[in-house]
Write a structure and sequence with these properties.
Blueprint: H1 2-8, E1 29-36, H2 39-54, E2 62-70, H3 79-91, E3 95-98, H4 117-130
Parallel strand pairs: 1-2, 2-3
């Protein structure tokens, strides 16, 4: 999702093209999967995580940091969505939820709206996974 990339300032949007093209000689790619919190979105995320877990069709060293589920509406998600997100929590290294932000629908630039607390928390969590804090020497 380009909006998440712009608001977090982290990463690139690969769209639905699949896994990043890396080779065994390149450093591992850090991937955050993003899905809409819908039945079809969580189904696709579940399939992608299963593919990653089995290393089926993986182009090279790819590490999944987690899955971001973006709310599809301001309403509570259907049970099938919450069930699949619960399943993903057992498979993926992390699952983050980003709530609905109505103002983004009318914004040409997401920076005009600003980052919600969910986005700020997501940015912090991803940075922590990419650059874990170093323990100080004793």
């Amino acid at each position: 999702m380009t909006t998440l990339v712009r608001l977090t300032g982290i990463g690139l949007d690969f769209g639905s093209r699949g896994w990043p093209l890396v080779t065994p000689a390149t450093p591992p790619a850090h991937v955050v999967l993003v899905c809409r919190a819908t039945a079809s979105g969580t189904w696709a995320a579940t399939g992608a995580i299963e593919q990653w877990r089995r290393r089926s069709g993986m182009p090279g060293p790819v590490g999944v940091l987690g899955v971001v589920a973006v709310a599809a509406s301001p309403r509570r998600p259907p049970r099938i969505v919450t069930d699949r997100l619960h399943l993903l929590r057992g498979w993926a290294p992390a699952v983050w939820n980003v709530g609905w932000v109505d103002a983004l629908l009318a914004a040409d630039d997401p920076h005009d709206v600003g980052a919600s607390p969910d986005i700020e928390a997501l940015r912090h969590a991803i940075r922590q996974k990419i650059h874990p804090p170093q323990e100080s020497p004793r």
